[in-house]
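Technical annex B. To support the medicinal chemistry partners, we prepared a structural model of the target in complex with S-adenosylmethionine, based solely on the information shown next.
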Amino acid sequence: MRRMSAESLDLFEAPSLLSDETQLVSSEDSQDSQILGLTFRDSKKLPVHGWYPYVEGFSAGYIEDLVRNYSRGSTVYDPFGGSGTVNLVASMMGVPSAFSEANPFMRFVAETKVNARNSARLRFSEFERCVARFKDWAYSPNFERSSREQDLTSYLHAFAGKDFFADKDIRELQALRDAALVLGAEAPEFRDILLLAVASVTVACSHMTRRADLRRRRDDEYKTRIVNVRSAVIEKLTSMQRDIGTAPARHAPAFFASADCREPVESLSGEVELILTSPPYLNGTSYIRNTKLELWLMGFISSERELVALNKTCMVCGINNVVKNRPAEYRFDYVETIAAELDNVSPDLRIPALVRGYCSDMYPILQNCARYLRDDGRLILDIGDSQFYGVHVPTDLLLVEVARSAGLRLKEERLLARRHSRDKTPLKQVELTFTHAA
Ligand SMILES: C[S@@+](CC[C@H](N)C(=O)[O-])C[C@H]1O[C@@H](n2cnc3c(N)ncnc32)[C@H](O)[C@@H]1O
């Protein structure tokens, strides 16, 4: 675990500002023509990618280029699978893939987009009949009756005293979910597509909004709230059906490797040509809490209290999953330099603990990546820097140090986008490419 060189340190000056809330500078605003400015916005309107709006998602076009250039048709792995962008792109290019994902709802989204979609494509007439039955039910008096008779005990128990939905809307969402479970019972893949149509519009139908984090709508944000739940679900399902019908039949499956990518997966050892991933940002969003409405509606949790256990499957990346008084298992010289600066200036001691915990957790993950990669394989990751209390935290350099300890060598660093904090301090998003050290 060696110290970084002085030259690398000089690349960065710590701006003296507090906020780590960041925004991407759009590529049009930027003077830099080589900057790609990649976000999920690029994927939102693409068939299948847009089935679930995941702001943390990758740009599909960017992934497609990397898979074409570097996978050589062999397995691609994403340790932080999220909504499955890497797996979906690989699948559509006929390349097999694997992924890990800590959030069971996001795992469901990824598997539905890749594997359930494949099944529905292969059995398209059967799938169309299933959708037709669902739509007939939704526009029959049974829908009103079921909505009226919904028991809200489970919702009230899960989110005691919270009021996330208008009464009528949560009843209709529950009724549509239950219908998906019954009408899709014969084919789990079709059932999952129906369920995803319901889950995709859940936040949009609620008093909440997701702008990176899930929060209550301000008064002026109510104009985008969906007020006709049934139409929204049916519209979503219709566009999903269209995507399935028009997609080429060529596909490759995605294999769910593990929930927690810190755990090694033996079957991947030496099998992977390309690892493509975007790890959580340091002090990133709370991935589990942000999907709590969907986690509950889809039956992955029965109460908000269960989020704590799920959070533990996530690596340390946000202030809320720093475990107080638990020293980081692995320490690195350069990481210590930055963390020690934060020890001195941060009134909140969880901030330096976050930096240490993040790097400590990335160590077994990068070790696993080194183990999975074939001799000539490469790991490409997309990451951004942060700052806290005037201390610049160059996450890319921290990861280079951790990766070196894990047996990986930095081959290339490329600027993907300029970002800035809320107070306009410049930050960036970069692509790091690693290969085996030896
Ligand atoms: C930046 S997002 C990845 C988004 C993804 N590239 C996409 O296109 O949707 C990071 C993901 O890592 C997941 N995650 C966090 N800690 C994890 C862990 N220890 N193992 C597996 N996944 C984890 C989070 O739940 C989140 O979905």
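Notes passed to the chemistry partners:
Residues 2-34 have pLDDT under 50 and may be disordered.
The radius of gyration is 22 Å.
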